[in-house]
Design brief:
The protein has about 270 residues and is mainly beta. The chain has three helices and 16 strands. The strands form two sheets. Strands 1, 3, 4, 5, 7, 8, 9, 11, 12, 13, 15 and 16 form a twelve-stranded mixed β-sheet that branches. A four-stranded antiparallel β-sheet has the order 2-6-10-14, with no helix packed on it. Strand 7 and strand 8 form a beta hairpin.
Length: about 270
């Protein structure tokens, strides 16, 4: 596989990871790609069948700045590209030495994959994920790190374009909750649409920390008419999936944002 395709896949890995709050996945371009929902937290089973689970069950102090990593295993199945997304969240905090020691080429050979992609470390900038979480996710170890299968993503026959500042559709039923008093970081496009950061990445800038996010406006290569801003919330902000679809974008550092959409009237 040539270098250009590898670079596209690395960008894809970051985007898929960002959409996996409930096992969702991003499609190529404007297309919507479905996946098999599995959890990205190790939350216990729900108390009631009709009650969505919350990441607070497994993370009582919240998910804000919680570190996680992912490994994507890419295979071609019946002429279509498919990616298994393996996630450390709820299993461990992706210790740097173990993560750095993972040999992606060796992992691909061991797992009979076309390529294995390391995505991370990443950190959540939200506080809580509320989702219809499934408690029976498959688990494994990769490079000695416990991981679970967060999603299986159908990519179609070709590698998707993963340019920054381009909307992607995420098939998932989630509430991404930002708590009152939390600082949030947003992009606003020329038409006034707002996108709130859900996770930041250490893939392109390993020195990036949550305390530096407010200064990204002078760092990002924003398209004309786009604005980056930060604010402290006066009340909880719930960022919703609408009709089972969330809309996400990434900036040029692979930080990921979800569009703030209002729920339709009942």
């Amino acid at each position: 596989m040539d270098r250009q395709k590898i670079l596209v896949l690395v960008a894809l890995a970051a985007l898929v990871a960002a959409g996996c709050g409930d096992g969702g996945s991003e499609g190529a371009g404007d297309a919507t790609t479905t996946s098999r929902p599995t959890p990205t937290t190790s939350a216990p089973a729900r108390a009631a069948a009709d009650e969505p689970a919350s990441s607070d069950d497994a993370f009582p102090n919240g998910l804000r700045d919680v570190r996680y990593c992912e490994v994507l295993l890419l295979r071609r199945v019946d002429g279509e590209l498919e990616a298994e997304v393996w996630n450390t969240l709820g299993e461990n905090d992706c210790p740097p030495e173990q993560w750095d020691a993972i040999d992606a080429t060796a992992v691909a050979a061991e797992r009979d994959a076309v390529v294995a992609l390391k995505n991370g470390p990443r950190h959540w900038t939200l506080d809580t994920i509320v989702s219809d979480i499934r408690a029976d996710a498959e688990e494994t170890e990769i490079g000695g790190l416990g991981m679970f299968l967060a999603a299986t993503v159908d990519l179609g026959p070709e590698l998707p374009d993963q340019s920054p500042y381009v909307e992607r559709s995420v098939v998932r039923e989630t509430i991404f909750r930002f708590a009152a008093g939390s600082e949030v970081h947003e992009l606003t496009d020329p038409d006034g649409r707002r996108y709130v950061m859900q996770s930041y990445a250490g893939t392109i800038d390993p020195t990036l920390t949550i305390d530096r996010l407010a200064g990204l406006g002078s760092v990002l290569a924003l398209p004309e008419g786009w604005v980056f801003s930060s604010r402290v919330l006066d009340e909880d902000l719930d960022v919703l999936s609408i009709d089972g679809v969330a809309t996400v974008i990434q900036d040029d550092l692979q930080n990921t944002y979800q569009r703030i959409d209002e729920a339709p009237d009942a």
